[in-house]
Amino acid sequence: MGEGPVPGWVHIVDFVLAGAMTIAFAVGLRRAQGRGWAPGLPTAYGLSLLAAGAFRPDPAGDFPRGVPCSAYYA
């Protein structure tokens, strides 16, 4: 998952980019379809992905290096 200045930065960037692309899809859907409830669903999902990008992943399974693998993840 990358060992840069922030452990798990790839995980964070993945969620943020997926959220931004989903919101861009919702904007295009609203332009093509007009007002309604359908564009709101991908917007809510995209915002939840952006919110998920604010959290770092839990250390587990020898990530980052030195963290023991617990029996739960084995």
Describe it.
- The chain has helices at residues 9-33, 40-52.
- The protein is an all-alpha fold.
- The mean pLDDT is 81.
- Helices cover 51% and strands 0% of the residues.
- The radius of gyration is 17 Å and the shape is elongated.
Tell me about the biggest sheet? none
Helix percentage: 40-55%
In the predicted model, the low-confidence regions spanning at least 5 consecutive residues are none
Order of helices and strands: HH
Summarize model confidence as the mean pLDDT.
81
CA(first)-CA(last) distance:
18 Å
Rg for CA atoms: 17 Å
- E-strand count: 0
Question: Structural class of the secondary elements?
Answer: mainly alpha
Put simply, the count of helices is 2
Percentage beta strand: under 5%
Task: Name the shape in a single word.
Answer: elongated
Short description:
This protein has 74 residues and is mostly helical. It contains two helices and no strands.
List keywords for this structure.
74 residues, mainly alpha
Per-chain topology:
Elements: H1 9-33, H2 40-52
Helix pairs in contact: 1-2
